[in-house]
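Forgive a beginner's question, but would it be possible to get any protein sequence you like and the tokens describing how it folds?
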Amino acid sequence: MESEFEIRKGKILDFIGSKQYNPMRTSDIAYLLEVPSKDMYDFEKIIEELLKDGKIVITKKGKVMTPESLNIITGTFMSHSKGFGFVRPDDENEKDIFIPSFSVNGAMHRDKVWCRIVSKSEKSAEGEIIKILSKGINVIIGTFEKEKSFGFVIPDDKKIAQDIFISKENCKGAVTGHKVAVKITKPPEGRRNPEGVITEIIGHINDPGVDILSIIKQFELPLDFPDKVYDEIENINEYVKEDETYNRRDLRNVKTVTIDGEDAKDLDDAVSIEKIGDKKYRLGVHIADVSHYVRENSHLDKEALKRGTSVYLVDRVIPMLPHKLSNGICSLNAGVDRLALSCIMEIDEFGKVFNHEIYPSVICVDKRMSYTIVNDLLTDTESKYKSEYSDFMEMFQNLFELRNILLNKRAKRGAIEFDFKETKIILDENGKPIDIKPHERNIATSIIEECMLVCNETIAEQFYWLEIPFIFRCHDEPDAEKIEKLSQFIGKFGYILKGSAAHPKSLQKLLFKSKNSSEDIIINKVVLRSLKQARYTSENSGHFGLAAKYYCHFTSPIRRYPDLEIHRIIKEYLSGKMNEKRILSLNKKMPEIARISSARERTADDAERETENYKKVEYMSDKIGQVFDGIISSVTSWGLYIELPNTVEGLIPVKNLDDDYYSFDEDNMRFIGLNTKNTYTLGDKVKVVLVRANLYERTLDFDFYENEV
């Protein structure tokens, strides 16, 4: 429930932002709003918080105004290693603002700032930082380098453009090669580097586990749960008590399976299926009822929202919920009773859900299956697993049939399917990478994907039309100028976007036509770059990539907070507790939950990518001088990125293109030799030699092998 303080804060901000408002002093605002003398302390505190949040500005004459009225944008500064950066406005409808290096004015990566627009066109805007409102990164992680009378820290995050100066008295005994945490004491000024103090020595870069621990600390991922959380879960049972099954549908006799990766321990979804006549199916998607154990506004709930998502690193999982829940009572382990929220859907031969029901249930999973085994059962008539799972073969065949129907339905409406390889990194007992290979998707992963997709769509559509507070998973239409640029680029390969360029079907057809062609990887990459990022919102705007009018995340409440919040809403609606007061309260909460969840998802993605990059460089570090086949996966002004078949990627710097003078053709994503007319284009197959593996920077450098292209 929103506090009286927050309500007053909202009213004051609404007043200052109204069209009728004329700039005035704080004392005049208090007079006009008839603030009683006993409430003046709270009023002054509200003004102070609004200033700190960048919601208001006090001019030199003492007048209170909104930043927008002064052509000032509040946002987050995203820096680049070359010194320039961009301000990402708080208003998601505004485009990023380019900040030249000479206009950064001491701002560092992720700082909350005020930015003044200095020039603007239809497609872009340029600005300057005029004030740093708050620091975006509390602690910077990096590698310490010791000099005679001082030291400096090279930040792991390459978006932090400058090394950090550490005076002798602030080195805390660190030696060269130590991974350390640094707190900034003086921001950068002009050409002067930022200054800091070492707050923690994590360990030496060569010590086992320090590499991943440094990344965990870089992204400020929480390694343990607060004591208050452990206190709350201490009395949670390890098994379902009989009285907990009351007022639930008993599905313990329904044949149910989980299908996951071999290593998965947090099993939050199970499926059941039966044929209805010859051509219809009754699909059950049973999701762990995490909300039964994670009560709203408890310490556990607040910690789950703070984390937002489980983070899957190469050597560990940082869970959203403690293991007692995520791997225990909430996990749908086979052979034990578990509480669930079940969505039972009746689906016809065209993939249409013509009837569905959602209810709290109690289930008992019959078998814990792996993707590998289910795929083998369905693709190999002589599968060695057939006798062991003979009682489940009909079930898997029905799931396979329904998967084909649902996949075909999505394809017909225009859902976009990219053909990118995921990475599987194999580590030894010391955390050293011993193999890297593409992680192949198969029929079994596709079966579960289709079951979850149709369930998420079904629930999102129902609750959209109920018009009650909800969290949707939205993917907005791409910007028209990006689609226009894409259309011009693919035209050079003989492709055109048919129909409406803003419809996913046109992009889907493009990807299908280019499949297995020499420019396949190019088309996939440029299409992906043309699309926006999916996010959580409290308002439904559809999912462009899935070509779905309604979509949400319902199926993973153990590892995603929006799913957990949706479960609460559904159960309150089903129990008749969704009254007007509750709706008002939830409507105020949903936008902030969506914002936090989207931000935590991006942080998790970045951390996962960073650990993968580090282990890839580590894996390649003993392969200097070896020759590899690769493909040009990206073309930039500073060089060519080469991707190997195992998904490892490295750079050929532009300085290595030394057999001619090469100009960068950005529109066509290529380099062209002035004299030889040699071209290096996105998608070209090349042979390269590894010349450098830098663990400090987490980068690989290649060179062409005898200039063969």
